[in-house]
Amino acid sequence: MYGIGLDSGTQGTKALIIEIESGNVVGRGYCRHKMISGLKPGESEQDPREWIKALEEAVKEALQDSGLNPEGITCLGVSGQQHGFVPLDQNYQVLRPAKLWNDTSTVEEAEEIIAALGGKKSFIEKLGINLAVGYTASKILWMKKHEPQNYKRLKLVLLPHNYLNLYLTGRPHMEYGDASGTGLMDIRKLTWHEETLQVIDSQLKEKLPELSHPAEPVGYLRKEVARKFGFQQVLVSSGGGDNMMAAIGTGNVMEGTCTVSLGTSGTIFSYSAQPFIDPEGEIAAFCDSTGGWLPLLCTMNVTNTTELLKKLFNLNNQELEEIISTTKAGASGLLFLPFIDGERVPVIPEASGVFFGLTRQNFDRANLARAVVEGTILNLGYGFSRMKSLGLQPKEIRATGGGARSQAWLQVLADVFETQVITLREPESAAYGAALQAIWTYLNEKGEKKELRELVGDLVKKDTLAAVPDPFRSELYRKIQQRFNSLWQRLIPEFSQHRHLVKTNL
């Protein structure tokens, strides 16, 4: 028997077919998404119907790759990009393109909602989470204000993975994990927050599905969908946001384990059995897709910085790795602030990148390369320290993403975080987690009760790349971390002034 895990991200949809007993991936598929071009600055949108096409193509490719009889597929789970707003009418038809997680055109609406609830501190006290501009709440208010005709027809609000579940099963549905990233939910009581809903629309609650525990399945695949692939009866699990699914896919379902994703942006998240609330709002207090909580840090700049460096010096990944290996920790005193795209944590959206401490001795591509890698990890280190100050106690870090394929990057991560780092055999952690959640749900539906932590313990396999912190380097990085934190804090006025001058000249 086999399960399917789908990950519908910003760029495309990935599909994995997994053997239930072994956890081995036996088939893979992928289909890119078409992006909407010509939008205004700050806007990021996609047509949700493109996700359905991509899902179908990815599943067909995975089935072809596996060579399996489709009748062997028993369950399916969907991971989706968080925070998106999918507006539907009474017939479940899309009213307009979905505003995505990285759409920042709703700043005014986010500020309006926060102010209506008494300010940032009051908002966090009431909901347990801060309202970032990318969250769904401000997108709904934006539509109400800017597209009133569309808003009059709005009958159902879904997130991206919920929209795909609706297509698969015909049932509107929302579970705790992804819903906690809307800015509409009390993450402690696991209910919609009435006051916030009222601020946006007195009838908004009627447009939202009831919240469900992530262990509860959505339902079974619709017959017309099943026929497209040759499936029989396929159970569809609740699914969840991509970070929630990546937590399951990396085995991060118990306290003491922490996942670090080194992609274009960087994320750190860990399991918590209790609500994990940051009174400053820097750490997102999400729910997870197991029934617990998922404190999460997100930074904007990781592999985007090394991609620029590789392009500048015409390097490939292996050459970059070799160059870094010729240098020592600390890059001979060179420090890099990696704020190429501004920054979310620390909260300095007006920031830009800085090389600090250039000398004749370190002004070479090897030290520049090491400084770039170290800068991205030191930036994550600021947020990681914040998480530890709030009670996180990690014993092991599980690294994923493009940066996790670099031994140099893993070693810097281990030394800065002073924690053992491992990698995993399956790199597509969100799609793999969606499949594992589907398998867990399927076994429970059959009466084979099994704890999710037991399932992932059996099926999530470690890879060969790993790193153990070196005490000498860790001591050095503690001093460099203090210097890093001091520097960006002192430069905040300069960052703001620089951005203002650039905009004025434009």
Mean pLDDT: 94
Work out the strand percent. 15-25%
Architecture of the largest domain in CATH? 2-Layer Sandwich
Give me the CATH fold name of the largest domain.
Answer: Nucleotidyltransferase, domain 5
Explain what the structure shows:
Helix 1 packs across helix 6 (160-169). The protein is 41% helix and 19% strand. The protein is an alpha/beta fold and 506 residues long. It folds into 2 domains: 2-238, ATPase, nucleotide binding domain (Nucleotidyltransferase, domain 5); 251-430 and 464-501, 2-Layer Sandwich (Nucleotidyltransferase, domain 5), CATH 3.30.420.40. The relative contact order is 0.12. The strands form 7 sheets. Strands 1, 2, 3, 5, 13, 14 and 15 form a 7-stranded mixed β-sheet that branches. Strand 22 (396-400), helix 14 and strand 23 form a beta-alpha-beta unit.
